[in-house]
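Table 4 source record.
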Amino acid sequence: MQLGHGKYQQRIQATVTGRTSHIAVELASDKEETTRSSPRSALPVPRQELVQSEAQAVRAANRIGYPVVTKPYNGNHGRGISIRLTSDDEVKQGFAVAREHSRSIIVETYLEGDDHRLLVVNGELVAATRRTPGHVVATARTRSPSSSRS
């Protein structure tokens, strides 16, 4: 997207602008480095292990403790992620899904809670949104009195 014209224009793609430094993008894309640096910022951080095989993924999940998440090491936009896995068989399936996107897979603790996106402009928080993943909610269907049989 382009905002403005001429020397005042700004181009934005997803969360990156023309002013976003390359090193910032690289660091944010490195899931291991992001996890290592997060404790310094007092944010909750999942335990994680990098694996290359299904057997390693199952062992990692058992060491970390269920439930877990599997995700591609270099994935983005939520592709190849499986969440709230609670058994060895589910981890094997999650590993296969993640493997379609990366040779290395991260197995990590599943943290319950809300997912937020923050927009910071010139060092100032200007917007925050809580992201709610797509889901299905079922409700019990009741019979109306006119449709019940006597």
